[in-house]
Amino acid sequence: MTMRVVLAEDSVLLREGLVRLLEEADATVLAAVGDGTALVAAVEEHQPEVAVVDVRMPPSFTDEGLRAALEIRRRFPSVGILVLSQYVEESYATDLLEAGGGVGYLLKDRVSRLADLSDALGRVAAGGTVLDPEVVSALLTKRRRRDPLAELSPREREVLELMAQGRTNIAIGRLMVITQGAVEKHISSIFTKLGLPPSSDDHRRVMAVLAWLEG
C-alpha cells in the first residue's frame, strides 16, 4: 500500500527533489512545506502515516524541525517521524529517540537509494526505529564521552555495585577483604568522579546508586 507522507524542507530545490524521491519510493506526498509550523498544520490536516522533516528550518535555523517533530509526536502519536538532516545532530537525535518508537534519523546524502528510503518509511510507519550508521556511531561516542561511570576504576565499580545492593561500609569491606578506611576512600573517590559534592539536600549514596543503575 502506498505510504502517505507530509514533508518539511526549507530549501525549495531540496524540497522538490525530495518530493520526487519520495514518490519514486512509492510514497504519496500529501503536502510539502517550508517550516515547522506549517508541518504541524499539514499533519493535522492530512493525518499522514509519516512526517519527513529537516532539523534546521526558519526562522532561526536551529531546532525548529525537531520541535515540530516532538509536537507531532505529542499530538499525533500514531504518525511516524523520519528526520532527514545534513548533519548528525547528537542532542536532537537523542531527544527524538526518547520520544518513543516510530522514529528515524537519516543523513540526506544516504537516501539516494530508493529501496533504503522506502524501507525506512515502512519501518517508521510500523513503529520501528531507523538510524543512519553515522548517527549510531555519534550517539555511542557521546555516551562514552559523557558517562561518568567510565571514569571509575574496577575496584570503585565493585564498591558502587555493592552499595547498590544496600551493603554497609562494613559489609563491603568484609566482602572485598579490605579495611573500612579503604572502603571510605573508594566511596569518596566515587562521589568526586560522579560530581556529587557534599550536600544537605541530596543523599550522595543514593545519588551514586542511581547513577550506577542508569549506567
Automatic annotation (TrEMBL):
Could you list this entry's UniProt keywords, alphabetically sorted.
Answer: DNA-binding, Phosphoprotein, Transcription, Transcription regulation
* UniProt-listed SMART domains: HTH_LUXR, REC
Where are residues bearing 4-aspartylphosphate located in the sequence?
D54
Q: Which residues form the Response regulatory domain?
A: 4-123
Molecular function as annotated in GO: DNA binding
Q: Does the keyword Transcription apply?
A: yes
Q: Which InterPro entries match?
A: CheY-like_superfamily (IPR011006), NreC/VraR/RcsB-like_REC (IPR058245), Sig_transdc_resp-reg_C-effctor (IPR016032), Sig_transdc_resp-reg_receiver (IPR001789), Tscrpt_reg_LuxR_C (IPR000792), WalR-like (IPR039420)
Q: Which GO terms describe its biological process?
A: phosphorelay signal transduction system; regulation of DNA-templated transcription
Q: Which residues form the HTH luxR-type domain?
A: 145-215
Tagged with keyword Coiled coil: no
Q: Source organism's superkingdom?
A: Bacteria
- Which Pfam families does the protein's record reference? GerE, Response_reg
Question: Under which name does UniProt file this protein?
Answer: DNA-binding NarL/FixJ family response regulator
